[in-house]
Each structure stands twice: as structure tokens, then as C-alpha cells.
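Trypsin-like peptidase domain-containing protein
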Amino acid sequence: MMRRACLLLAATLLPSCAAVPDEPRGPQDLAAVQRAKDLLWIVESENGSAIGSATAFGPGRLLTTATAVEDWVGQRLRVRRDGTILPVRTMQLAVRQNFAILQVQDPRLESPRPSAQPGANQRLFMAAANGGSVFEGAGPVLPVAAPVEGIARLEDVVIADLPAARGFSGAPVVDTGGNLVGIAAGILQTGLFDTSLPASVAPGSRVPHRSVIVLPIGTIDRTMQQEGLR
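C-alpha cells:
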């Protein structure tokens, strides 16, 4: 199961080989990062404790990872962006893949443009929440070195060299044109809640890069159809 793989992956893919983390640098890069920020929401408990990131996915819908919210089933959650706070009305967890759909009452949430499946070395961009802070970064798609236990179809995921800190799970990942590639769903070699990940990020600071598992929109759409999710 993909969800289990995100938590228990062994070192079966090539690690990031960049000596210095790739960072957004030109106007097009900065526009892509801003697009990721536009799609980013923060998932919180009812009392405002940060749980993770979420990605706007259409009117009244956001995506996050199942591993981030599965322990919160039956409890009240909310999502926040800037000064807007929306209660989560319903939550649906996928079985075959590591994502969850959060339903909120806000028809203004837009449907992002989906990206084509990115190729090796294509640069991707991400914005993610770390408590009340937002961090960002860019990095290339990494090639697969071997089959991954728990993932039946390697084409169902993308691995990219991107920043990872507590709260990154569920964050939007976009291409150079600002089209949505998918959501950050885990990291390689360690669990989603690896203690080596930075627990807090100072605004404007650089966040260490890891080999991040990205769950593409195509995989999410296909799973939604298979499982009858809306």
C-alpha cells in the first residue's frame, strides 16, 4: 500500500546528489513558488495546533495526506490561510494511496491546472507550512534506482529533491509553469515523522532538502474514481 510505503520506505531510490540545495532564482521560478503558496493551506486542530499542509483542489475541496490526518478521524479540524479559517465538514481517506480529501464550505477554492507527469531532472517547486511559518524551495525530479516495496507502480509517484520539515506533508508541488504536479506525501529512508526533520523553521531560513515522494494529480484522480471519492 502506498500509505505504508510513505512511512516505511527503505533506501531504494537514488538520494539527492545536489551539493547545494536548488533554490528559486529567476522571475519564472519565483512565479512558480508564488503559485504553490496560492494553493497552500494549513491543517489545524480545533484549538489551532498545526497538523500539516493542504492543497486547494477545487470548490470546497482540499488535499492532504492520509498519514497526516488519519489519527484525527472523528475529531474537528479546520484549515487556515492568512486570516481565513474554515472548518472541515467531512474528511475522506483513500485506501490505495496516501491522500485525504477535506471538504469545506468555500466555493471560491479554485481548481488548479494539472501538470503533465514530470521527467527526470525537471525542476519542481513547493511551498509548505511549518506551524505558523511557510517555507519554500525547488529541486529536480530524481531517477528511480530500484523497485520500491509497497508501491506496485513506480509511475504512480514522483521523487524530487525538495525541502522537508515538520508540516510539509500535503504541500502543493508545481512545475515551472505553476501547474500542480501533486502533493508532498512522504520522504525516503525515514518515516513521515522522522525526528531528523527540522521541527521548526525560522521565516526566510533555508530548509534542508530530502528525497520527497510526490503523489501526482493523475494518480489521485484515478484513485478517486476507483474508490468512489468526491
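Helices lie at 2-8, 27-39, 66-69, 217-227.
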